[in-house]
Amino acid sequence: MPSSSKTRKSDISISNCGYSKVLDIISNKWTALVIYAMEDGVIRYGEMLRRVDGISKKMLTQTVRKLERDGLVARNIIPTVPPSVEYSLTPLGETLLQPMKELRQWGRGHYQEVEEARASYDMANASDS
């Protein structure tokens, strides 16, 4: 006999779930786009700023610093005048590329279905408002 929800011990926890911790790292929309900008190798800050549509200098700086802190991005300062800064994925960061590419592929293949489901739901529940 299945246990009731009152007696069953919780087995899903935000604080203990490795998956939720990983989602915390990559779930920001800018994080994914910045990682995609580095998927082909080393990229300079200005080039990344141009490639990532809509990101501000402040947000790009915050995002790459967070990724650097997490060990996913390496930052290299080139002693030129003015100094140039290049970024690249670390070996750890590169391990994220395949699962992120799969999510991107899923999105391209199924997001239209999500939009249709939302529209259908909204129409069915419009009278509830």
Characterization of this structure:
This is Transcriptional regulator. Residues 17-115 form the HTH hxlR-type domain. One of its GO terms (molecular function) is DNA binding. It comes from Paenibacillus albilobatus. This protein is mainly alpha-helical and 129 residues long. Helices cover 54% and strands 11% of the residues. The chain contains 6 helices and 3 strands; from the N terminus they run ααβααββαα.
Key attributes of the depicted protein:
129 residues, mainly alpha, Arc Repressor Mutant, subunit A, 3-stranded antiparallel beta sheet, 54% helix, 11% strand
Query: How far apart are the first and last residues' alpha carbons, in Å?
Result: 40 Å
Shape: extended
**Number of DSSP E strands:** 3
Integer-rounded radius of gyration:
20 Å
Annotated CATH architecture of the domain at 18-95: Orthogonal Bundle
Task: Give a quick account of the main beta sheet: strands, pairing sense, barrel closure.
Answer: 3 strands, antiparallel
**How many helices in DSSP terms?**
6
Instruction: Give the ordered list of helices and strands.
Output: HHEHHEEHH
Determine the CATH superfamily of the domain at 18-95.
Answer: Winged helix-like DNA-binding domain superfamily/Winged helix DNA-binding domain
- Given as residue ranges, the uncertain stretches (5+ residues, pLDDT < 50) are none
Keywords: DNA-binding, Transcription, Transcription regulation
Organism: Paenibacillus albilobatus
Domain HTH hxlR-type: 17-115
InterPro entries: HTH_HxlR, WH-like_DNA-bd_sf, WH_DNA-bd_sf
